[in-house]
Amino acid sequence: MSFVAAILPIIGIFFLLFVWKQSSLKAGLAAYAVTVVITLSHSSFALEIQEIVNASIKGLLTSFIVAYVLLFGIFLFHLMNKAGAIDDIAAFIAQSTDDQITQTIILVTGFSPLIESTSGFGTAFFIVTPIFIALGFHRFKAALLGLISLLAVPWGALATGTMIGSDLGDISISNLGIGSAIISIPIFVYYVTIVVYVAGGWRALREKWRAILLYSLTFGISLLFFNTYISVELSGVLASLVTVGIGLTVIKKQRKRVNLTTQETSVKRLSIIKLASPYLLLTIFIFISRLVPPIKHLFHSHIVIDLPAYSFSLALLYSPGFWLCVTCLFTIIIFQIQRDVIWNAWKASLKQWIPFVIATAGFVSMSEVMADSGMTAQIATTTTTVFGSSFIFLSPFVGGLGGFLTGSNTGANAMFMQLQVQAAHQLDIPPDILAFSQNTSASHVTMASPSRVMVGAALCDIKSQENHLLKSISLIAGGALLLIVSITFGWIWFVS
């Protein structure tokens, strides 16, 4: 009965979302409420009121880290959109090649991972999805493609989630990065295949299978190379740049040459530099803040929210949220956006942001209360006892569950990385492999997180299709989990 009580909030989430078709906001709040009721009524998981409050505050603080980034991510989108920059960038991509499938592949394997690697927290979704809409995709397809484009989450914001997983699991960051890259290579091929199918159907798959392999393997192998020989933190950025570079080279060779005067070419180059300048500035700022030691120390040590009682610390200047804020100010200046337009963009951002913050806080606070009450430990103990060595098949689903609930690789690793490593030791399985499984499965399922889907539906103005979008992306993420299960089992069998 204790196991049933412990897993009840998680079962409730699935029923609310997939059976009763409730919004992520309602599901998050309801799941949190059910968890609190269980801790107050079930002796095995009893917590004092103050303990529940403390766990809930920890969840709110963790949610704030993400909310801080996404507020300015949404605001940047609205500013760029109202300035017409999104449509102009889409037009430039369209002019580079008239092949919509090639445009889509480059956005998914190059541009989106570049933004996600430098910003993290799903920021790339806010930049890439509007481009898909501007390129002519239906809003539902654009939202789906934008979510799938978040395939570089293990290396998002310079691999912060992977670094936390390394610390919690006592696994070398280099080993965790390399292992995650190895498992992810087939996943990239799978995702790009899905992207081409969503964008163009079976015909596109038949015509573009070489492009699928070229771009997905270029990104995956580059990622593995940079994880191995450069650094885990920078590998996502560098692999993205390599992929974009190869993509533009291929396009240049394939497209028909157009005779332009020197002046026309110059104007075109200046125009795209201006259009892309907010994203370039954001990338440069984050690079500098992380790669120049004196600046990194400065931003890490000033204006820091430090709450030791809740094991919480946030350097506001070091966070991508701050640099997104600076980028928003830069965007206002360079595009000369009027005050009333700025105000309307801000109101639109808050309208989308507030429900997301509440939903995310509900899911993360629920997770914190479950962990502090012993509900998470009960689930782990029971599943390990029941499944024994077969737990290796369950391991990716545990990691995926964390990513699904929190929408964060960091949050999922905080919930389950220690569980995975402890289970590996108990079952005499190499702990590194289950750590790889945890990191990749959690990361690749964040794209299906209800809170992230909710934001996607709101951003694309398809709120009535939120549940359909959630089902579609969940099926896609589920396919990735099955691949991770196969790879994890094969790896363990090989080393045994």
Write up this protein.
- With 496 residues, this protein is an all-alpha fold.
- It has one domain (2-495).
- The protein has helices at residues 2-19, 24-41, 49-82, 85-96, 100-119, 123-134, 139-148, 160-169, 173-207, 209-229, 232-254, 262-291, 293-301, 320-334, 339-373, 375-387, 391-406, 409-426, 431-445, 450-459, 466-495; strands at 304-307, 312-315.
- It has a two-stranded antiparallel ribbon with strand order 1-2.
- A hairpin with a 4-residue loop joins strand 1 and strand 2.
- Helix 15 (339-373) packs antiparallel against helix 20 (450-459) and helix 18 (409-426) runs antiparallel to helix 19.
Write the layout of secondary structure elements.
Blueprint: H1 2-19, H2 24-41, H3 49-82, H4 85-96, H5 100-119, H6 123-134, H7 139-148, H8 160-169, H9 173-207, H10 209-229, H11 232-254, H12 262-291, H13 293-301, E1 304-307, E2 312-315, H14 320-334, H15 339-373, H16 375-387, H17 391-406, H18 409-426, H19 431-445, H20 450-459, H21 466-495
Antiparallel strand pairs: 1-2
Helix pairs in contact: 1-2, 1-16, 2-15, 3-6, 3-14, 3-15, 4-6, 5-6, 5-9, 5-10, 5-11, 6-7, 7-9, 7-20, 7-21, 8-18, 9-10, 9-19, 9-21, 10-11, 12-13, 12-14, 15-20, 17-18, 17-19, 17-21, 18-19, 19-21
Which strand order does the major sheet show? 1-2
Helical stretch tally: 21
Question: What order do the SSEs take from the amino end to the carboxyl end, as H and E?
Answer: HHHHHHHHHHHHHEEHHHHHHHH
Uncertain residue ranges: 258-267
Radius of gyration: 22 Å
Secondary structure class reads mainly alpha
**Shape category:** globular
How far is the first residue's CA from the last residue's CA?
A: 36 Å
Largest sheet: 2 strands, antiparallel
Helix content class: over 70%
Q: What percent of residues are in strands? A: under 5%
Number of strands: 2
Family: Belongs to the lactate permease family.
Protein name: L-lactate permease
Function: Uptake of L-lactate across the membrane. Can also transport D-lactate and glycolate.
Main location: membrane
